[in-house]
Amino acid sequence: MSGEYDVVVVGGGLAGMTAALTSARLGRRTGLITGNVVGGQLVSIDKIEGVPGFPEGVPGYDLCPMAQEQADAAGVELLSGSCESVAAAGDRWSVTSDGSSVTARGVILATGTALAKLGVPGEERLFGKGVSECASCDAPLLRNKVAVVVGGGDSAMQEGLTLADHLSKVILIEQGDALTGQASYRDRVSANPKIELRFGATVTGIEGDQTVSHVRVKDLKSGAESDLETAAIFAFVGVVPNTALFRDLVQLDATGRIGVDAAMRTSAKGICAAGNVRAGSPHRAAAAMGDGATAALAIDRYLANGEWGGPA
Ligand SMILES: Cc1cc2nc3c(=O)[nH]c(=O)nc-3n(C[C@H](O)[C@H](O)[C@H](O)COP(=O)(O)OP(=O)(O)OC[C@H]3O[C@@H](n4cnc5c(N)ncnc54)[C@H](O)[C@@H]3O)c2cc1C
Description:
- It is a single chain.
- The chain is of the alpha/beta class.
- It has helices at residues 14-25, 60-73, 135-138, 154-164, 183-191, 285-305, and strands at 4-10, 30-33, 77-79, 83-89, 92-97, 100-109, 113-115, 131-132, 146-150, 169-174, 195-199, 201-207, 214-219, 225-229, 232-235, 239-241, 271-273.
- Strands 1, 2, 3, 4, 5, 6 and 17 form a seven-stranded mixed sheet that branches. Strands 8-15-9-10-11 form a five-stranded parallel sheet, covered by helices on one side. It has a three-stranded antiparallel sheet with strand order 12-13-14, with no helix packed on it.
- A hairpin with a 5-residue loop joins strand 13 and strand 14.
- Helix 1 packs parallel to helix 2 (60-73), helix 1 runs parallel beside helix 6 and helix 4 (154-164) packs parallel to helix 5.
- The longest helix has 21 residues, at 285-305.
- The radius of gyration is 21 Å and the shape is elongated.
- The model has no long low-confidence stretch (mean pLDDT 96).
- Bound molecules: flavin-adenine dinucleotide.
- The site of flavin-adenine dinucleotide (FAD) has 39 residues, from helix 1, helix 4 and helix 6.
- The site of flavin-adenine dinucleotide has 39 residues, from helix 1, helix 4 and helix 6.
């Protein structure tokens, strides 16, 4: 990887793809570093909802490759590996990935978020052996078995519904006393005979020899703990922004997300942020795409006139 770009986009989810696509269409030489997951968080989601122009339930593995094809066709150059650093290099930025560097006058950070861990014993040891983050990947392997989903928000309900299509039973454990996500998911989850809801509880441990055999469930009112037999556990209990690399580069908010102004400009001249990684993101596909386009336009204006804003 080498060369001088107008713009380098870091992150290959919908925010990064849209930013790169828009930038290339504006005539800017644009490089895209996708990291491990081309297509981002949504690529493994079975049924995506709420994206205008796509049928409700469009699979992520259909939608995300389409965005990538559009970016390719617009002339975006795919740069291999994961970004390791972004550092000032005169009036340009040096972006390093897999040990080699390119430079760019504008950089768009779109590294998204990772799912938060439960942080309980057994979670790390049994990851990939019943501890999973992807319902559509593992549901066919769990046919007619029982799985636990932790969380009561959109992701937990969406993935719980996907699991319920294949499994005999899904036990959804939420620490509060109600489901918290969108009404359209709440209604379907509540009406699904295969989904059992347990409120006021949490998982305190995951156990099994070679694979998950049961989880330890704590009733948060009484404090009582009990074992629950399950073949798998999926936790959707929040997300963590992928910003460790950028801590000394741009201003972050208290949650670790990148501060931006309305044009997605960060505190560093020539660097924008887009998608789930930016402060105030509504965590929706449509919003990530909008951010990407906004960021590409802001960088394009900066390259034309050198003017910069940034968060207050
Ligand atoms: C289970 C689940 C279901 C969801 N369902 C829906 C839905 O139905 N409808 C909806 O509107 N929204 C949904 N969302 C939210 C939606 O996924 C996000 O809002 C959106 O995908 C965010 O896109 P993004 O590009 O900002 O981040 P991501 O999709 O997370 O992409 C980030 C990208 O950055 C890359 N990356 C990370 N670190 C580096 C690095 N160092 N170098 C290079 N690249 C890096 C990753 O590989 C990835 O490609 C769902 C989320 C989850 C978790």
